[in-house]
Design brief:
Elements lengths: L1 H11 L2 E2 L10 H7 L2 E15 L4 E15 L5 E7 L1 E2 L6 E3 L11 E6 L17 E4 L15 H5 L10 H12 L2
Parallel strand pairs: 1-6
Antiparallel strand pairs: 2-3, 2-7, 3-4, 5-6, 7-8
Helix pairs in contact: 2-4
């Protein structure tokens, strides 16, 4: 009985994704190879069991503020592996896969979606740039996950303005 209790307890404990090493992807390479590039505001995150892939997936919907490449609609949803199902204590997080904070703005670089519909940003968190409230873009790639980190972004004098960053991305991507 004690072994059964321990086994059940272990199943209820948060599961941890395996660590991954991701090669640095230069901005120019991301801009050239991305199928989709946009500047947008995260509207929602919905975690659910995806019947197509038989995995827990997080669906993040963005309001597209500026479509740079491959986006033709005013809203865009990406599907990423992992998340925490509502009402569940089990969390499936993959290290490096960015999480998007609702109402925060980002510049996102995406590859073509997989045959199962998954499309995490290129280079994982490297393909997600946080846009600060002063309309500058962080050089470091964002994985902002809390309201406090989104409310106090790491802006500074070396961060490019959003307009300059988007113009550079357009030139690099050829769009």
């Amino acid at each position: 009985m004690r072994r059964l209790f321990i086994a059940i307890t272990c199943l209820l404990i948060v599961s941890v994704g395996h660590a991954a090493t991701v090669k640095h992807v230069p901005l120019e390479q991301m801009a050239k190879t991305a199928s989709v590039i946009f500047y947008g505001r995260a509207l929602s995150n919905e975690v659910k069991f995806d019947t197509l892939s038989q995995r827990v997936a997080t669906f993040t919907t963005f309001e597209v503020i500026d479509a740079i490449k491959g986006v033709t609609t005013s809203r865009y949803t990406i599907k990423q592996v992992g998340g925490q199902l509502p009402g569940s204590r089990v969390v499936n997080r993959i290290h490096g896969v960015p999480r998007f904070t609702v109402d925060q703005e980002y510049v996102v670089f995406l590859p073509e979606a997989s045959r199962l519909g998954f499309a995490s940003p290129i280079g994982l968190s490297q393909g997600s740039y946080l846009v600060n409230s002063d309309k500058t873009v962080n050089h470091s790639h964002s994985t902002a996950t809390t309201a406090s980190s989104a409310a106090n972004p790491d802006s500074g004098p070396n961060n490019p303005t959003l307009a300059d960053f988007l113009n550079s991305v357009r030139v690099m991507s050829g769009y």
